[in-house]
Amino acid sequence: MTEGNFVDYVKMYVASGKGGQGSAHLHREKYITKGGPDGGDGGRGGHVVIRGNSNLWTLHHLKFKKHIRAGHGEHGSKSRSTGADGEDAYVDVPLGTVVRDTETNTVIFEITEHGEEQIIVEGGKGGLGNWHFKSSTNQTPRYAQPGLPMEEKYITMELKVLADVGLVGFPNAGKSTLLSVITSAKPKIADYEFTTLKPNLGIVEYRDFKTFVMADIPGIIEGAAEGKGLGHYFLRHIERNSVLLFLIPADADNIKKQYDILLDELRRYNPEMLDKERLIAISKSDMLDEELKSELNTQLEGELPIPYLFISSVAQQGITQLKDKLWGILND
Hints:
Strand order of the largest sheet: 10-11-9-12-13-14
CATH architecture of the largest domain: 3-Layer(aba) Sandwich
Radius of gyration: 29 Å
Largest sheet: 6 strands, mixed
Organism: Hyunsoonleella pacifica
Cofactor: Mg(2+)
Oligomer: single chain
Subcellular location: Cytoplasm
CATH class of the largest domain: Alpha Beta
Order of helices and strands: EEEEEEEEEHEEHEHEHEH
Number of domains: 2
Distance between the termini: 31 Å
Strand content: 15-25%
Mean pLDDT: 81
Keywords: Cytoplasm, GTP-binding, Hydrolase, Magnesium, Metal-binding, Nucleotide-binding
CATH superfamily of the largest domain: P-loop containing nucleotide triphosphate hydrolases
Main location: cytoplasm
């Protein structure tokens, strides 16, 4: 999927259908001049339904579809015939989509399962026909209920990427390179910061045809929790990952300090992030000889509070061990 096709934020207007009007018909037939009321009920207006679809990875198909309207209910008719219900309008979204009320910014619901359906605006109820209102004192009611009006709402849909492993690191740490090596994904790779502007997803093939999903998230900078850099735009994608893989280059001035900054940004954005399983991969380690690697290992053993390993995406070093470690954490 190209970067321009990844859409994870859409604003939309949704409107349900009006309920059909009840009929005030009086039965008339040859030899039956006063047959009494027989007006049918109006049909229900159509709902607008948000539906989860695991085959979708982005909201791109809704990018230019800003107005969704359901069908109106038909009016009731004679012989107690009920009007047809309005046609429901279905909006398919990828799993991990959060639906908010645009005006209040409150979360209405989240879609996390395939086939899950949530009604965002309900269709108006159909009005009752006049035969409901007959009584011993009013045998020929000449009135019926109108249908209830439609509902309308402005909503915002945000996609939080659902992946097993989320790559976390500073810009230009080698996240896209690792994703291209460990999966079949083809992210944009270049030697400058913020090469990745949208999340990239790839499927990691493990032993015995087992797989898990890895997401390359745009790089974090200090102050991201306050919205600096790409700020909240990408931090929300990390919320849904089961495991956080911190990628720190071997040529960093201070590996422990970089890890602390990254962790602090996640904590300030959402403290619940710290409950996730974490692993550190020290990338670009092909530039270290055995002596340097041994020195760094000795230094980091007492400093880093979580497991770490050395990898090199370009030289294909440590990739198998990384897969083993991630699979073990995911299935612990």
